[in-house]
Amino acid sequence: MTSEQIDWSRAKRVHECEQVDALRFHQEIAPQNQPAVLRGLVNDWPAVHAARESPQALSAYLRTFDTGEPIEAFLGAPEINGRFFYSDDLRGFNFEKKKLLLGDFLDLLLKYLDDERPPSFYAGAIQVPVHTPEIVSLNSHSLLDDSVEQLVSLWIGNRMRTAAHYDLPQNLACVIGGRRRFILMPIDQLANLYVGPLDFTLAGQAISLVDFHVPDFEKFPRFREALRHAYIADLGPGDALYMPSLWWHHVETLDPFGAMMNFWWRDAPAYMFTPLITLMHSLLSIRELPARERDAWRTVFDHYIFQTGGDPMEHLPMNARGIMGEMTPERVARLREHLASSLIGKRS
Hints:
The chain is an alpha+beta fold. It is built from 10 helices and 14 strands. It has 2 domains: 8-265, Cupin (Jelly Rolls, Sandwich), CATH 2.60.120.650; 275-345, no CATH class. A 9-stranded mixed sheet has the order 2-3-12-9-14-7-6-4-5.
């Protein structure tokens, strides 16, 4: 094995901005489709003030919003060093998933707060509307209009590492307590990140199998190329990171008690599925075709879906474009029904 310790301090830094308001965000930052550190964006949050006082104060603050609905926690032995991952055979995990009350999970973090080698604890994607719904009214941001639907989640744990993955929505990750390090790469590094199974994942998203601390370049040689495209962002309490859709990000908590709240949203119409559904559908319709037919279908997709040559229906009046016309609620319903019946009818 040819593993090397990576000195991430030498990586390119994510662009940093201060005093960002909604106008600047929408005119200067989001259109770039690049990650951006928004320094001090949530400095005034009461949660951040509690975190700066002490982990105990933050824990007490979070408990005041707890609905009593159990959360899913990841519990790992000290030996995993915070790297929640697969088992060696990729058929299981190196940690246990367990339902816990939020208060009990916070007690675990505080119990091992001063241990040099504690067990690894992580509770990610805690759904705020279910578990702590009132926290958003006191800890919010002003970058998006109230009409934009946002999915809000909490992320709490001790020193831990989330393997590199990408998310479909845009993401505003706001650090409450503890320092966080993000390592980011554009989606075009997909082939260089050696991604694990798409349908057996740690928490929903497929992840890179590369250990970003000590990558094995004999096993994952193309990761050297990925390193050339990496960016790093170090955040503290009160800072936020904007991540556009489909940017790879590896996340590390650098302190023994960390908390973050993030806001996900999409600019796409509400009727749209995740494109991953289309990818899975293509396993049944495209992947095993002869190469010449796959190439032909690439041309069809480029024309109708990616529209590399412009609007493919511009020669037709609007009322004659069929399913390629405006996606009215009625047309969406018919298309969904057609797709569902075609899949059911193809069962063997």
